[in-house]
């Protein structure tokens, strides 16, 4: 007899995780958008804070919510990579454009591939794994863009800001979609229970 695949995450409040990640992305996106300074040093400061905070949020929330041990470890590693990249960006904020491009490219490649791999491994276990796939692809695309585009501080910092906006918007939609799906499931369960109790 076939069984439905186990859920990729545990608990009914996982919808708060993508919303938390969205908030972490929106703040630096706004800072980039409303700041005329798009220098490499500014980019390192903004990326450093984002990567550090996002890494902590990703590692802590994933360890508490993801059911699969391997993917829990992968997301924890992803968080640690973010923390290390963030610290490097903040400490070496005077590293120049080359360092900024290199650091963001490596961070995006590693974290994007890890999240994409997790989504592929557990695909079919609900909307959560689809969200991991999409965020992983978008992050990996950022890595390719930084790698292939001609080096230019204004363009590169602006591209980072655009990525943060796109990720933020997607994660907000993902978070509320999970919440609404849970509410619909509860209503359906309550309705079926009421019907079964009706003589």
TrEMBL record:
Database matches in Pfam families: DUF308 (PF03729)
Ranges annotated as spanning the membrane: 19-36, 42-61, 73-93, 99-120, 132-149, 161-181
InterPro entries membership: DUF308_memb
Keywords: Membrane, Transmembrane, Transmembrane helix
Protein name: Integral membrane protein
Source lineage: Bacteria, Bacillati, Actinomycetota, Actinomycetes, Micrococcales
């Amino acid at each position: 007899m076939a069984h439905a695949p186990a859920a990729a995450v545990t608990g009914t409040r996982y919808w708060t995780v993508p919303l938390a990640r969205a908030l972490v992305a929106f703040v630096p996106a706004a800072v980039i958008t409303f700041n005329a300074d798009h220098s490499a040093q500014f980019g390192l400061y903004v990326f450093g804070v984002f990567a550090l905070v996002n890494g902590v949020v990703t590692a802590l929330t994933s360890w508490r919510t993801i059911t699969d041990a391997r993917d829990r470890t992968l997301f924890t590693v992803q968080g640690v990579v973010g923390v290390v990249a963030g610290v490097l960006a903040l400490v070496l904020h005077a590293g120049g454009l080359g360092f900024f491009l290199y650091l963001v490219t490596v961070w995006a490649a590693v974290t994007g591939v890890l999240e994409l791999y997790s989504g592929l491994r557990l695909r079919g276990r609900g909307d959560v794994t689809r969200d991991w796939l999409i965020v992983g692809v978008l992050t990996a695309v950022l890595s390719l863009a930084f790698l292939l585009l001609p080096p230019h501080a204004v363009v590169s910092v602006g591209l980072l800001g655009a990525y943060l906006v796109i990720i933020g918007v997607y994660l907000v939609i993902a978070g509320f979609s999970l919440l609404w799906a849970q509410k619909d499931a509860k209503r359906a369960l309550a309705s079926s229970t009421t019907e079964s109790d009706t003589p």
